[in-house]
Amino acid sequence: MMNRDFPPFRDIFGWSPHQVGFSSNINALTGLDGDTTTNITNEKEYYLDAARVLQYELKNDRTLVLKTMLRKDRNLHAIFRNELEPLISYEVPDKHE
Length: 97
Prior knowledge:
The chain contains four helices and four strands. By secondary structure, the protein is mostly helical.
């Protein structure tokens, strides 16, 4: 998600990210110093809608889901906790039982 009112973002990221107007200190039409103001009638609903779009993308974009899974499940702590720690703490059963 990016600020559509900030022209440098369009130059860097193109038009593919979801765009939401958040106002800018640059004129969006000329790209020069000036102001671009987004008029919002219901601020709470406006930002809730933006948050819903962001939440949807985070849950459904395959690349983001994979990156999140790798970061959570394939880091050193997770591998130690799930793979090595059980081996270290394994108790050998007593043969006499």
